[in-house]
Amino acid sequence: MLDLKFIISNLEEVKAKTKARNYSFDFDSLIQKDALRKSVINEVEKLKADRNAISKQVGILKREGKDTTELQEQVKRDAGKMQELDSKLAEIDEEIRSMLLNIPNLIDDTTPIGKDETENVMVRKWGEPRKFDFEPKNHWDIGADLGIIDFERGVKIAESRFNVLAGIGARLDRAISSLMLDMHREKGYIEMSVPYLVNTKSMIGTGQLPKFAEEAYVCERDNLYLISTAEIPVTNLYSDEILDVKQLPVKNTSLTACFRREAGSYGKDTKGLIRNHQFNKVELVKICAQDKSVEEHESLTHDAEMVLQALNLPYRVMALSSGDLGFSSAKTYDLEVWLPGQNCYREISSCSNFKDFQARRANIRYRDADGKVKFAHTLNGSGLAVGRTLVAVLENYQNEDGSVTIPEALRPYLGGLDIIKKG
RNA sequence: GGAGAGAUGGCCGAGUAUGGUCGAAGGCGCUCGCCUGCUAAGCGAGUAUACUGGGAAACCGGUAUCGAGGGUUCGAAUCCCUCUCUCUCCGCCA
User: Fold this and answer.
1) Which domains does chain A have, with CATH numbers?
2) Which of A5, A90, A200, A233 places its Cα 20 to 30 Å from the Cα of A189?
3) Nucleotide showing the shortest C1' distance to residue A62 CA
């Protein structure tokens, strides 16, 4: 959520930056509403000031045993008017809030301007794609052949885009998660185990609601939502709290299942593990002081990259262009891992700096060294998507005979196992 | 699921019977100053937020906020209603 005063005093900048992300918003009606709001406030507060003064007078006179009937009558005359204005004001406030909740974050000045993902900018590249002397297979073929991914039964017990990992597949998934959590813990992140169901307030806090309601699974009866990312519970852990600047930065990591309806993506990535309704992800979340988020964003991205390096998976870092940027983010780096089976780089992590956008919604603040209470900056990134990492391992480490070599870094988590073979 | 208790500032906690001088005692914490050869202790002062009007600003005024929403009243932390959440006991259960 943007600060209304900031919008008003920097209207042209806000309009331009909103347009840069292909968003249209009627700022003029927001400005009008705000003007209306101020005039109503003026009117009603004048009435209330009078009322309060008279009431105080009544109290004093009563104690002296004097008659106050006339004063009381005087206040009664304005009671209806006050109530009317109060409810009008409440209505206007609600309208303004709902408008504000639907305005995306301002893009950071270093975010490249571009119409969509084709204009994302590569920041750096790590590792060289392996040269195969055979035709590399897709992970769904590798997984099915090895009997470690069971797509049919996933569909049977749930619906399409659900899958089952079996045997070494399940263990590999767990090994990858453990490696990630251990690496992050060594970097000072605190591991958190959090609810997978959250309330509406939390969904609004991080920006999933009200705008993206169709993306979320809902438990209507209990008014709870399945999380689409650990960002939601882990960031909202600090909602309505005032942290001390000495506690910052808060650095948390959390492994959760993530649930996404993937509405509107029918036909895309229907095969394999790339776009499932449920997947595991290790998330990194930071809460920091306002002047620290730029460097914290860089280091968070670096922390996510280290997992790919530990697994020796080639990747590139892309700065998302304004047109591809998520609603709440000011700046995002996507990590894209090389997938030889599909002969392309695919997103495996998204590291974003939200600045104070989420903090305003979730009311996450801190007391700075100067004693002032300020909105914190929030950041998060996948570190990494576990399912997609599994995909990358299968495709990059596949052998001609259909077996898959286990990356060195994962072997300690698999009792020293170094290769997955058929049968 | 049944019965009961509760929700007050950064935190703890009084106030609720008897509505008014309560933005709210006291304590802790924090900030500044003093003091002590360091540390601790001690002494003094200060210490909510949002909105809004005026002002270049420092600042000054107003309104709101004691879980949320509504009601009674000239006036509500305090009385009434609804809701949410938390805790305790019982039941059930991984």
Assistant:
1) 4-101 (1.10.287.40), 117-420 (3.30.930.10)
2) A200
3) B20
Cα gap A166→A153, rounded to integer Å: 11
Nearest nucleotide to the CA of A45, by C1', is B63
- Please, how many CA atoms are within 13 Å of residue A40, restricted to the half-sphere of its CB? 19
Q: What is the ipTM of this complex?
A: 0.87
Interatomic distance A368 CA / B44 C1' (Å):
25
Report the alpha-carbon distance of residue A293 to residue A381 in Å, rounded. Answer: 13
The strand ranges marked E within A152-219 are 164-165, 190-191, 197-198, 218-219
Going residue by residue through chain A (423 aa), what tens digit of pLDDT does each one get?
Answer: 999 999 999 999 999 999 999 999 999 999 999 999 999 999 999 999 999 999 999 988 888 888 888 888 888 888 889 989 999 999 999 999 999 999 999 999 999 999 999 999 999 999 999 999 999 999 999 999 999 999 999 999 999 999 999 999 999 999 999 999 999 999 999 999 999 999 999 999 999 998 898 999 998 888 889 999 999 999 999 998 888 888 889 999 999 999 999 987 877 788 899 999 999 999 999 999 999 999 999 999 999 999 999 999 999 999 999 999 999 999 999 999 999 999 999 999 999 999 999 999 999 998 888 778 889 999 999 999 999 999 999 999 999 999 999 999 999 999 999 999 987
* Identity of the amino acid at A173: D
Q: Is there contact between A121 and strand B, defined as CB under 7 Å from any strand atom?
A: no
DSSP H or E run through A224: strand A224-226
Alpha-carbon distance of A346 to A308, in angstroms, equals 13
pTM, full prediction: 0.93
